[in-house]
Design brief:
Layout (H helix, E strand, L loop, with lengths): L1 E6 L12 H15 L3 E6 L9 E3 L5 H4 L9 H19 L5 E5 L8 H4 L4 E4 L6 H8 L6 E5 L2 H7 L8 E3 L19 E4 L8 H11 L3 E4 L5 H8 L7 E3 L5 H10 L2 E4 L9 H8 L4 E4 L4 H5 L3 E4 L4 H15 L4 H10 L2 H17 L3 H5 L2
Parallel strand pairs: 1-2, 1-4, 2-3, 4-5, 5-6, 6-7, 8-9, 8-11, 9-10, 11-12, 12-13
Helix pairs in contact: 7-12
């Protein structure tokens, strides 16, 4: 198939990844190409040039409009909208069999802009007002929608999802996150250093538990970093930097447990999955999709404020008692990249079938 992948442009689609959405977009392009599909990635122009890239905007938006995501800034909105409008025009005229939309742009939900190209839109964020109406108005035979978990799907459609919407769980390549049979007794946390990811709460819980903690990830919100995280570093609590996949996998494998501390309804939780593949049980907050991802591979507690951090400190002990083979086995059973790509291909076939018998026969 000739497949257009439309990405979000806040960060480059290139390692080291700014977050899970960038990692998934890259692995989708790389994985589908390896399966023999002709894939064009529509993303910022400073994304990975090893992929077949068609720039939506010349460089990622944070390089030009730093810190303005979700602020309603008119300049950013006009800049990004112009890029997506032009990209959708190229997709409509580009002879693509299917479009996989991971952009979070409302424009990509407009069937007229897509020019009739069968489309799968994957949602990666909790529902918010600027996008909600467009998502709800868009399901059609040639437009299917996925959420990353049952909790995520229910958040978008509390009264029940339409038949064109379903769960597409994320997946990782277990070979890229090798199993380590033992840890050093410490904990790790990984993710974007932004308020909704809750690194400050992981620090508080680790201090209560008397366990060393290393944070990994990019500083996305400078104000949050300076006020809520940096002052808490020191001694057994440190920031290990923003590492690419292999280096991060090695660091995760050295630890004994992973802390998951979302302060929002986490749509999925890719960092926890990567740590689980390395053999780390999870201590975390039972919020959003975290219970679906972690399952028997962790010890989860309610996310209340001070009492939540005290409970999380106790949960660390429970997580450390879980054999490291348990989280690895859960990833291999439910969350591999091959399983995820299989589901993507099946969904492409279904959305193409919605375009009519002639197109379905060509799948």
């Amino acid at each position: 198939m000739r497949i257009a992948l439309l990405a979000h442009c806040r960060h480059p689609i290139a390692p080291p990844f700014a977050g899970g959405l960038e990692a998934l977009s890259w692995h989708l392009a790389e994985g589908l190409t390896a399966r023999g599909h002709e894939v064009v990635l529509f993303a910022s122009g400073d994304s990975d040039r090893r992929l077949s890239l068609d720039p939506v905007i010349p460089v990622h938006q944070e390089a030009v409009f730093p810190g303005l995501e979700h602020t309603g800034d008119a300049g950013l909105k006009a800049h990004v909208d112009a890029g997506y409008a032009a990209a959708l025009g190229r997709i409509a005229a580009g002879g693509f069999d299917v479009l996989h939309n991971n952009s979070l742009s409302r424009l990509a939900l407009d069937g007229a802009r897509r020019g009739g190209v069968p489309t799968l839109t994957s949602l990666h964020v909790p529902p918010y007002d600027a996008l909600r109406w467009f998502v709800h108005a868009s399901p059609a035979p040639t437009h299917r929608i996925t959420a990353t978990s049952r909790a995520h799907l229910a958040a978008w459609w509390p009264e029940g999802a339409p038949p064109e919407a379903e769960v597409l769980a994320n997946g990782i390549d277990p070979a890229a996150w090798p199993f380590s049979p033992r840890g050093d007794g410490g904990a790790v946390w990984a993710g974007r250093l932004a308020p909704e990811k809750g690194a400050h709460r992981a620090i508080a819980a680790a201090r209560r538990a008397g366990i060393p903690l290393t944070l990994f990830g990019p500083v996305e919100d400078g104000g949050y970093w300076r006020s809520a995280v940096a002052p808490l570093l020191g001694g057994p609590i440190r920031h290990g930097g923003h590492l690419a996949g292999a280096a991060l996998a090695a660091e995760l494998g050295r630890a004994s447990c992973f802390l998951s501390t979302p302060c929002w309804d986490e749509p999925f939780g890719l960092s926890a999955l990567e740590a689980m593949a390395c053999g780390l049980p999870v201590a975390g907050f039972a919020r959003g999709a975290v219970p679906e991802v972690v399952g028997e591979a962790g010890c989860l507690v309610p996310p209340g404020e001070d009492e939540g951090e005290a409970a999380l400190a106790q949960a660390i002990g429970g997580a450390l008692a879980i054999p490291r083979t348990v989280p690895r086995a859960r990833v291999l059973r439910l969350f591999t990249r091959d399983r995820w790509l299989d589901r993507c291909e099946a969904l492409y076939a279904r959305v193409r079938a919605g375009a009519g018998p002639a197109l379905a026969a060509a799948v």
